[in-house]
From TrEMBL:
The keyword Cytoplasm does not apply. Residues 404-560 form the Peptidase M1 membrane alanine aminopeptidase domain. One of its GO terms (molecular function) is zinc ion binding. The lineage of its organism: Bacteria, Pseudomonadati, Bacteroidota, Bacteroidia, Marinilabiliales. InterPro entries: Peptidase_M1_aminopeptidases, Peptidase_M1_dom, Peptidase_M4/M1_CTD_sf. Keywords: Signal. Residues 1-20 form the signal peptide. The keyword ATP-binding does not apply. GO terms for cellular component: cytoplasm; extracellular space; membrane. It comes from the Bacteria. This is M1 family peptidase. It comes from Maribellus luteus.
Length: 750
């Protein structure tokens, strides 16, 4: 009896295991539930901030000095941390991003490299680190000057508080530091200096130059994931007052508004600046002649530039005696934003002609899809071969040759990088997502909007990077080296394709193929306005897009963002039927009957019983239905297979023998009951000559060879199909053939 019970238990267990597995919902249209955080009072199920949403605020007063002889930054800051959370805090966490350049940095320690057949010299240089660019902390003190316990953990620092910081209270403390500025041209990086040997001068593009507060919220707690180089920055909003001491002949561009133009600019330069505030064309504030004069003089005196910025998450600046400076006004209702560019003579004539105009255009274009640009200035600074963004200021590449000549590619690349980096003011500088965790939330959304702005600048702008076909080589590649978009920034394979271009292409498809521009634009604008000056998560974006549009997109997010599936929909089989009331049968023109069955009508001859049943069938039809049966109606059944795993809309172009054509767009929900294969019947009042699946290459289909009927990729078969099709139409034996799946590799489109 025990053995029987044991056997029964084993069989039952196995049965439940099997049935449990079979009954697990793996449908690609199942709702996103366990993937998204549970809605709460802070973040609602609609994707909006909840009625108890909160975020921290941090105010900075910073004084720094730029040493132009030693290429060094020294500074001291007073930080006031406002605890607007419901939690008491025992300590505060700061980011020490310059420690990525410390000799013992994890970035160097964890860099994996395979010598292989060929090794880039710069890779070998990275193995030998003799530059020490980490923060040198001199003190961390409270407001009364007492030392505070501080623990440095690589690129993060914990400051222990003398007593818990209660909700609603603030704490002020100070940090003093210095560090060596890296040579960006040899050491790389998002900031640093560029040396110009011809005139023995520097351009400094300086960021991450001060210890910065990390984000504390209800999603992550403290966001203190180490900075390894790929994942950028998670920062709280606050107000800044920054004093920057530089050589007196330097021109400084920075986040915020200049507070003391009378002490750092000439009277003539101030007059030009005031004129630029009223001009809708760029006006020169510092001329090339003035910049070239400063290059030769090299002043030994110093001046202090003072800037203030409110409601920003960061601060950056650029400084050089080489800078030419121009500006123009960009009106937003009753407000005027000042678009500005700073560039050396090496950037001309390209920069004087385009840069500030592109800044102004970008602000207008992005505002159309999000919200009016809220800051007082927007700045483009010329740096060689770099693109990096900060609030109100960005560092952008694009340089003519030494004779001032440039190609169309150089021009478009420069315009593109300026649009992209200025656009980052919207994402993530205002819609403040967590870059340390989710690169795509700023880079992907920004790349998508960048391409809309570029197209508005020039309808012929090269937009290959956001065309669906451009992502095909990546999506059909080796899945071992492809990450889902929803992967942490530091763990992503092929970060450019993963975090920039694939999400941008996904949004383009979502806008133009799945939702339509009207629904998409309304929902996207709602997301931007809900979360401006706040900290959204991916769930907030996904939920808002659905909430504001009324479109269920869980299948889309799951496929494009949570998986590495690719789109490959195949037309596996095409059958063509024609109803004929006179002969009481439905003639099959093209089907999958085996080739050796040459006479379909011989095998299935119409009997007297068939005729009687058909007469009874006709008696049930209305006059309209009888009319349809007697007209030239053609029914076409197409069998589709989803070979790539990514469910997508089915878009078909039918070309008819009379020279006309028709496009039918079938929503992705056609796959909802069977994610792998589906059939659909179409009917027409004319004869179909050719069918093309995804005719405009708008779904990123990775194999177009199986998207045609008849199969024009194989001419001999195509001719045979045409011949047999003609025979089938003229003879009663209804000869047939099958359109097989095609597996040839698609020609790569760059």
């Amino acid at each position: 009896m025990k053995k029987i019970c044991a056997l029964f238990f084993l069989v039952t267990t196995v049965a439940w295991s099997v049935f449990g597995q079979e009954n697990t919902n793996l449908n690609k249209f199942r709702q996103l539930k366990q993937e998204l955080a549970t809605p709460n009072a802070y973040r609602t199920a609609s994707g909006a901030p909840g009625h108890e949403y909160w975020q921290q605020k941090v105010d900075y007063k910073i004084s720094i000095r730029l040493d132009d002889k030693k290429q060094r930054i020294a500074g001291e800051e007073s930080i006031t941390y406002h605890n607007q959370s419901p939690d008491a805090l025992n300590y505060l966490w700061l980011q020490l991003d310059q420690n990525i350049r410390a000799k013992e940095s994890d970035t160097y320690q964890t860099a994996a490299m395979d010598m292989g057949q060929r090794v880039n010299y710069s890779h070998l240089e990275n193995l030998i680190q003799d530059f020490d660019g980490g923060f040198k902390l001199e003190h961390v003190k409270d407001s009364s000057g007492k030392d505070l316990p501080a623990t440095v953990n690589k690129t993060m620092m914990r400051v222990d508080l003398p007593e818990p910081l209660q909700p609603g209270n603030s704490f002020t403390f100070s940090v003093k530091w210095w560090y060596n500025i890296n040579n960006r041209m040899t050491d790389g990086g998002r900031s640093g200096y560029e040396y110009f040997a011809d005139d023995d001068n520097y351009i400094y593009a300086v960021a991450q130059f001060y210890p910065r507060m990390a984000v504390y919220n209800e999603v992550e707690g403290w966001q203190h994931k180490q900075f390894l180089g790929a994942g950028e920055f998670a920062l709280p909003f606050g107000d800044f007052e920054v004093q920057i001491t530089v050589p007196s002949d330097h021109i400084v561009a920075a986040t915020g508004e200049l507070q003391n133009p009378e002490t750092v600019l000439t009277a003539e330069q101030i007059s030009r600046l005031e004129a630029a505030r009223k001009s809708e064309e760029p006006l020169i504030i510092v001329t090339q002649a003035e910049a070239e004069k400063a290059e030769k003089r090299k002043a030994k005196e110093e001046k202090t530039w003072i800037f203030k910025a409110t409601k920003v998450r960061d601060f950056a600046f650029a400084s050089s005696r080489k800078f030419i400076w121009d500006a123009m006004a960009v009106p937003f209702g009753e407000r005027t934003v000042l678009a500005m560019s700073y560039y050396p003579k090496e950037g001309n004539p390209l920069w004087e002609q385009y840069s500030t105009r592109v800044v102004a255009h970008t602000l207008k274009s992005y505002s159309k899809y999000t919200f009016d640009y809220p800051y007082p200035v927007a700045i483009s600074v010329h740096t060689d071969r770099i693109g990096m963004e900060y609030p109100m200021i960005s560092f952008n590449g694009g340089r003519p040759d030494k004779e001032g000549k440039y190609s169309e590619r150089t021009k478009y690349d420069m315009i593109g990088v300026i649009v992209h980096e200025i656009g980052h003011n919207f994402f993530p500088m205002i819609v403040n997502s967590d870059e340390r965790q989710w690169t795509w939330m700023d880079e992907g959304l920004n790349t998508f909007l960048e391409c809309l702005a570029e197209e508005a600048w020039d309808p012929d702008f090269p937009l290959r990077k956001i065309m669906p076909s451009s992502i095909v080589p990546y999506m059909r590649g080796n899945k071992k080296y492809i990450s889902p978009i929803m992967t942490n920034s530091e763990s992503v394979w092929q970060i450019g394709s993963n975090a920039y271009y694939k999400p941008a292409v996904a949004l383009k498809i979502l806008r133009e193929t799945v939702m339509g521009p009207e629904l998409f634009d309304y929902a996207f604008r709602e997301y931007a306005q809900r979360w401006m000056f706040k900290h959204p998560t991916p769930a907030d974006f996904f939920r808002t897009m659905e909430d504001a549009s009324g479109v269920d997109l869980d299948w889309f997010w799951r496929g494009w963002f949570y998986s590495t599936d690719h789109c490959d929909i195949s037309m596996e089989d095409v059958r063509w039927y024609h109803p004929d009331s006179k002969e009481a049968e439905i003639r099959l023109v093209n089907n999958s009957v085996p080739d050796n069955l040459t006479s379909f009508s011989d095998q299935y001859a119409v009997t007297q019983q068939d005729e009687r049943e058909y007469d009874r069938f006709l008696s049930t039809l209305s006059n309209e239905e009888k009319k349809i049966m007697g007209e030239n109606v053609h029914f076409c059944q197409i069998d589709f297979k989803n070979l790539g795993g990514l469910v997508m809309p089915v878009i078909l172009k039918f070309e008819f023998t009379d020279g006309t054509e028709e496009v039918q767009r079938i929503p992705a929900e056609i796959w909802r009951r069977n994610n792998d294969e589906v059939s659909k019947v179409f009917f027409f009042n004319k004869e179909v000559k050719q069918i093309v699946l995804d005719p405009y290459r708008e779904t990123a289909d990775c194999d177009m060879d199986n998207n045609f009927w008849p199969d024009r990729k194989q001419p001999a078969r195509y001719e045979r199909q045409k011949s047999r099709l003609g025979s089938a139409r003229s003879n009663s034996d209804h000869s047939s053939q099958k359109t097989p799946a095609k597996n040839q590799e698609e020609t790569t489109v760059d």
